[in-house]
Design a protein that fits this description.
The chain is of the alpha/beta class and 151 residues long. The protein has a single domain, classed as Transcription Regulator spoIIAA. It has five helices and five strands. Strands 1-2-3-4-5 form a five-stranded mixed sheet, with helices on both faces. The longest helix has 18 residues.
């Protein structure tokens, strides 16, 4: 099959308040998945962001986890991630993501799959404002890390 320019894999990664938003389009191969995950990890480390939304669109579902570097992804996620939300635009992609998420959870990764980005963002950013405020208080010496506040 010949690929048109619009058929080539591409991605967009942006730093949002409290999370990294990574969108993958037209992924067809395990190698493209690996390249995307490496780029996401690099951006997360660069910006010190510990939560990520990975959204996959117009792509082929890949169920063979090791082909796209699943073990390396899990090892990196263990070191740098608090939460990972996965979203996809098709049932088949969601099934592949659910399988990967289940395997990642067995390894202790806090990852969930969602039908839509709104639900993913609700879960992903849950508690972010409170955690950010506590971190700010600790940094200024006005708060204690083991004390929680309620309003």
């Amino acid at each position: 099959m010949h690929r048109q320019a619009s058929d080539t894999m591409h991605y967009r990664i942006s730093v949002e308040p409290g999370y990294l938003k990574a969108e993958l389009f037209n992924r067809r191969t395990a190698e493209e998945t690996r390249a995307f995950l490496v780029a996401v990890a690099a951006e997360g480390l660069k910006h010190g962001v510990r939560r990520a939304l990975l959204s996959v669109r117009d792509s082929v579902a890949i169920f063979s986890l090791e082909r796209f570097g699943f073990s390396a992804f899990v090892e990196l996620a263990e070191q740098m991630s608090d939460r990972i939300a996965l979203a996809a635009d098709s049932r088949e992609l969601r099934l592949a993501q659910e399988y990967a998420a289940m395997m990642a959870r067995w390894r202790g990764i806090n990852v969930r799959t969602f039908r839509d980005e709104a639900a993913a963002l609700d879960w992903l950013t849950e508690g972010y404002a409170t955690a950010k405020r506590a971190s700010s208080l600790r940094a200024t010496g006005r708060g204690h890390p083991s004390v929680s506040e309620t309003r």
